């Protein structure tokens, strides 16, 4: 999950970060880490919209093993191969996961009901329930057992797997997969014989992997992710099965992102009353990213990537940091006083957002008012008494009411044979819209 639309935004703002993986141009990596849940979901239910899709548990296991072997063959790690499956999630994320699982079951029932109403033939076999991909289920226990056999078999039969340190962190180990991977990296960094030039590659689909990777402060770190297009083919039994037609892998180089951020916040270097430290700036950058969205705490309202929230956060940070006596996020500890000053300055942008939202609400209100006017008695009874009664429905000043009445009279709206109702409706709609926008302008000038 993580930050919505963050990967696309950062790839567009910093275009050199991402490169398409080609067989003859793959960089060398020492350590490869797999966030396994993306693989498990992709191999077990690749197309939730296909009601007739069925797959056996044995086929799911085979697809998972093939995909692991495929990724290993692309990167060819030299020292460490780490596979992590989500265990019990932190308490802060449990409510979100519970809601997501209930919604998944509800959507599956609704899709099945719609398919039956349309007369679509439903296979007799039960579909795979994606909620089985949960720590503690029988499915996950069987998968973990099969993964152990698979790893042992590869170590015995494949020379590329020999000589590596291979880890499998299963569903019975608490914590999300990406967090267990980061814990492992931090534990490796604490070793006396750790090589600071170790090259890391992390595979996963979550956007927050960018945050986790860069806050490791490793100089050589890349993310591997793919774009998958699925097509359906029939097997011997005539059943539909999903197969990969084309896979385009991308490497996102976090080492380049560090350089981009260094240039992004370089103007601060001459303005700060304390020493400039890129690593501390990166920690603050991660904090700003989590204000837009994350899996554990609510994000700020009206702060969205598609509304240029990140550039606003950057501008606020460049303005506020020289006024502070240190960084906001100090080695993972949030300085609340400095953070409060940052938020107060960032909140100045909320006024503009609220005014724009009020303008939108005013426009929608005018449309609702005009619709109510069309349904009023005046539209069916072209008499002045009905007009005056209906005019009281709207929150207009006396001057505005008089102007509307004059315009209606000039159009002959009170004549029994008048056909000016459509034009009169446009008049009242225009008057009400002008009135509500005037209120918005008055608010914006205060």
From TrEMBL:
InterPro entries: 5_3_exoribonuclease, Xrn1_helical, Xrn1_N. Keywords: Exonuclease, Hydrolase, Nuclease. Residues 1-227 form the Xrn1 N-terminal domain. GO terms for biological process: nuclear-transcribed mRNA catabolic process; rRNA catabolic process. The keyword Nuclease applies. One of its GO terms (cellular component) is nucleus. Residues 276-413 form the Xrn1 helical domain. It holds the Pfam family XRN_M. GO terms for molecular function: 5'-3' RNA exonuclease activity; RNA binding. The keyword Phosphoprotein does not apply. Belongs to the 5'-3' exonuclease family. This is Single-stranded RNA 5'-3' exonuclease. It comes from Wuchereria bancrofti. The lineage of its organism: Eukaryota, Metazoa, Ecdysozoa, Nematoda, Chromadorea.
């Amino acid at each position: 999950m993580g930050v919505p639309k963050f990967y696309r935004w950062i790839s567009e703002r910093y275009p050199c970060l991402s490169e398409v993986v080609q067989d003859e141009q793959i960089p060398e990596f020492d350590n490869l880490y797999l966030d396994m849940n993306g693989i498990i979901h992709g191999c077990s239910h690749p197309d939730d919209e296909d009601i007739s899709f069925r797959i056996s548990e044995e086929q799911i296991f085979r697809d998972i093993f093939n995909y692991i072997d495929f990724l290993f063959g692309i990167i060819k790690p030299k020292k460490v191969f780490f596979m992590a499956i989500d265990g019990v999630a932190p308490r802060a994320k449990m409510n979100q996961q519970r809601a997501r699982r209930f919604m998944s079951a509800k959507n599956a029932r609704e899709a099945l009901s719609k398919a039956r109403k349309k007369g679509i033939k439903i296979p007799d076999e039960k579909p795979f329930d994606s909620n089985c991909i949960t720590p503690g289920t029988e499915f996950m226990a069987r998968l973990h057992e099969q993964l152990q056999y698979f790893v042992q078999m590869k170590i015995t039969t494949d020379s590329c797997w020999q000589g590596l340190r291979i880890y499998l962190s299963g569903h019975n180990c608490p914590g999300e997969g990406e967090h267990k991977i980061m814990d492992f990296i931090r534990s490796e960094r604490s070793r006396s014989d750790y090589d600071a030039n170790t090259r890391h590659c992390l595979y996963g689909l979550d956007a927050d992997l960018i945050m986790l990777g860069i806050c490791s402060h490793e100089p050589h770190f890349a993310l591997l992710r793919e774009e998958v297009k699925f097509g359906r083919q029939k097997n011997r039994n005539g059943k539909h099965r999903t197969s990969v037609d084309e896979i385009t892998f991308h490497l996102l180089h976090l080492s380049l992102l560090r350089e981009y951020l260094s240039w992004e916040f370089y103007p601060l270097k001459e303005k700060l009353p304390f020493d400039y430290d890129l690593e501390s700036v990166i920690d603050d950058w991660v904090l700003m990213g989590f204000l837009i969205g994350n899996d554990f705490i609510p994000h700020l309202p009206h702060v969205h990537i598609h509304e240029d929230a990140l550039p606003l956060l950057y501008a606020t940070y460049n303005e506020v940091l020289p006024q502070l006596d240190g960084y906001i996020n100090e080695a993972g500890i949030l300085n609340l006083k400095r953070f409060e000053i940052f938020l107060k300055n960032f909140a100045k942008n909320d006024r503009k957002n609220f005014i724009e939202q009020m303008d939108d609400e005013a426009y929608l209100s005018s449309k609702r008012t005009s619709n109510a006017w069309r349904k009023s008695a005046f539209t069916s009874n072209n008499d002045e008494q009905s007009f005056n009664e209906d005019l009281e429905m709207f929150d207009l000043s006396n001057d505005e009411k008089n102007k509307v009445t004059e315009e209606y009279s000039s159009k002959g709206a009170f004549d029994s044979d008048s056909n000016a109702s459509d034009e009169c409706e446009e008049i009242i709609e225009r008057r009400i819209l002008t009135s509500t926008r005037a209120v918005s302008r008055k608010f914006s000038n205060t």
